[in-house]
Specification:
There is one protein chain. By secondary structure, the protein is of the alpha+beta class. It has one domain. The protein is about 25% helix and about 30% strand. The chain is built from 3 helices and 7 strands. A 7-stranded mixed β-sheet has the order 1-2-7-6-3-4-5. The protein starts with 19 loop residues before the first strand and ends in a 5-residue tail after the last strand. The relative contact order is 0.26.
Length: about 120
């Protein structure tokens, strides 16, 4: 699998979605998110995001849009930081991920109206 600095740059073919997948944690996600989870093994990321959405119901009440960004801490490390922002670069919280075999350096997913999607699918 090729290493991509920002995986979103490789996913622009996903515009809109045909299918919505229901995650066991109660949210839906799109074809693009399904592709990323399947091809890059990031189902764990969907769980992490879903757990934090469930633990913080006020998060979605107060913010109808959340930008989730998974970012490698440094090129030499396999540790990442997952951040949630309100869309105006205001940090809502961040999560440390000590290890992942995710090959890209960065991936952004948007959560809007109960649906997790790629930015290009908006």
């Amino acid at each position: 699998m090729e290493n991509h600095k920002n995986l979103n740059d490789q996913l622009n073919q996903f515009i809109g979605t045909v299918n919505y997948y229901k995650h066991p944690l109660g949210f839906h996600y799109t074809d693009g998110v399904q592709y990323v989870a399947s091809k890059y093994g990031t189902y764990w990321l969907l769980v992490d995001i879903g757990v934090h959405i469930r633990r913080s119901p006020k998060l979605m009440q107060n913010y109808g849009f959340i930008c989730w960004t998974l970012k490698r801490n440094s090129p030499q490390e396999d540790s990442f930081t997952l951040t949630a922002e309100d869309g105006n670069y205001n940090l809502l919280f961040k999560i440390s991920i000590p290890y992942s075999d995710f090959k890209a350096d960065q991936l952004s997913l948007w959560f809007e109206g109960g649906v997790l999607l790629l930015p290009s699918e908006h």
